[in-house]
TrEMBL record:
This is Thyrotropin-releasing hormone receptor. It is found in: Membrane. It holds the Pfam family 7tm_1. GO terms for cellular component: membrane. The lineage of its organism: Eukaryota, Metazoa, Chordata, Craniata, Vertebrata. One of its GO terms (biological process) is phospholipase C-activating G protein-coupled receptor signaling pathway. The keyword S-adenosyl-L-methionine does not apply. It comes from Periophthalmus magnuspinnatus.
Length: 390
């Protein structure tokens, strides 16, 4: 049947007399499986990054502050873009008008904050390595926190425009109504917004990163490191004492710089398919909407938000040790809770055999005393485990 389309005065409602198009079953299965896998790994990993930095004083450095900001932004992307995609691929849009506004806003907020965080730690690395004297006064934790706060405020205000650019669209088919979260006006009018977003949060950060990492590489890999140079600029790797020789400092700085460079390269590569698609679709009519290529673009975006904790674990000894400590402390918590639950029952049996009346008078008091005591011992072990890594 030939498509017959009519537009009402309300531009968000369209009549299409064909049947509702259904996505192939294999596409639905692959989308759900990959989304759950990538988002599950990414959410767990980014939460661990935040926890290991907040729980360990020696991990609170300027660079790690930016990595926490990046982890929070990636969490927002995974929660606001990844998980809603599961329901959208099966039952179209189910979150209503408010969900359309809020989810779109959070998606762009997470994307833009992650880009700004990458730019921020790139500049911080450049100052720490290429201007080590100034870095002792510029690259501080307090300054990093102020910069991060500024980044979140700026991007939060910048993304407010999406509250006015998206709306619920309804398409009436012969066998039902399909609701989608789409554009409020014609897509051609969005070209300035897309290109501004493309320039500010993709082209500029990557250009700056390419220039700065070139300068950093010249210092680290081509120029000799001054003997007095230390790592007070705020790296993930701190020197173990003031007597650390220049070779050890150079090795530590090379390692953290390589790790951050890999994060930047992955950001550039994994975002390229989607960014390219947006630019191409701004000039061609009709736009290219191959469902499998769109799925590939989405999975690349989700992977970019999920892969950073894996990179930290592979390339940073400090993060690797901190992740292990966090997991070990979690296991100890579970074991202590099981012991705390079972111990009163054990003593109840022993007292019942020896002296039933004495048990009835003293057992409640013993339970109250043992609970806090065991919790204090558990906290002491976790704190001691954390402090030994300092």
């Amino acid at each position: 049947m030939e498509n017959i389309t009519a537009t009402f005065k309300d531009t968000s409602r369209v009549v299409n007399l064909t049947e509702i198009p259904r996505k192939p079953l294999e596409e639905q299965i692959i989308t759900i499986f990959l989304t759950l896998l990538i988002c599950g790994v990414g959410i767990a990993g980014n939460i661990m990054v935040v926890l290991v930095v907040l729980r360990s004083k020696h991990m609170v450095t300027p660079t790690n502050c930016y990595l926490v900001s990046l982890a929070l932004a990636d969490l927002i992307v995974l929660l606001a873009a990844g998980l809603p995609n599961i329901s959208d691929v099966v039952a179209f849009w189910i979150y209503g008008y408010t969900g359309c506004l809020c989810i779109t806003y959070l998606q762009y907020l997470g994307i833009n904050v992650s880009s700004c965080s990458i730019l921020a730690f790139t500049v911080e690395r450049y100052i720490a390595i290429c201007h080590s004297i100034k870095a002792q006064f510029i690259c501080t934790v307090s300054r990093a926190k102020r910069i991060i706060a500024g980044v979140w405020v700026f991007t939060s205000l910048y993304c407010v425009m999406w509250f006015f650019l998206v709306d619920i669209n309804e398409t009436i088919y012969s066998n039902g109504v399909v609701v989608t979260c789409g554009y409020r006006v014609s897509r051609s009018l969005y070209m300035p917004v897309y290109f501004l977003d493309f320039a500010l949060f993709y082209v500029v950060p990557l250009f700056v990163a390419m220039v700065l990492y070139g300068l950093i590489a010249r210092i680290l890999f081509m120029s000799p490191l001054p003997p007095h140079l230390n790592d007070r600029g705020g790296s993930v790797h701190h020197a173990n004492g003031t007597g650390k020789n220049s070779k050890g400092v150079r090795t530590a700085r090379k390692q953290i710089t390589k790790m951050l460079a890999v994060v930047v390269v992955l950001f550039a590569v994994l975002w390229m398919p989607y960014r390219t698609l947006v630019v191409v679709n701004s000039f061609i009519q009709p736009p290219y909407h191959n469902s499998w290529f769109l799925l590939f673009c989405r999975m690349c975006i989700y992977s970019n938000s999920a892969i950073n904790p894996i990179i930290y674990n592979l390339m940073s000894h400090k993060f690797r040790v901190a992740f292990k400590k966090l997991c070990a402390c979690s296991r100890e918590d579970k074991e202590d809770k099981a012991a705390e639950y079972n111990m009163p029952m054990y003593f109840t049996v022993q007292r019942d055999v020896s002296n039933e009346s004495h048990m009835m008078l003293t057992e409640p008091e013993d339970e109250e005393e043992r609970g806090p005591s065991m919790r204090r011992q558990k906290m002491h072990r976790c704190d001691k485990s954390t402090m030994t890594n300092s």
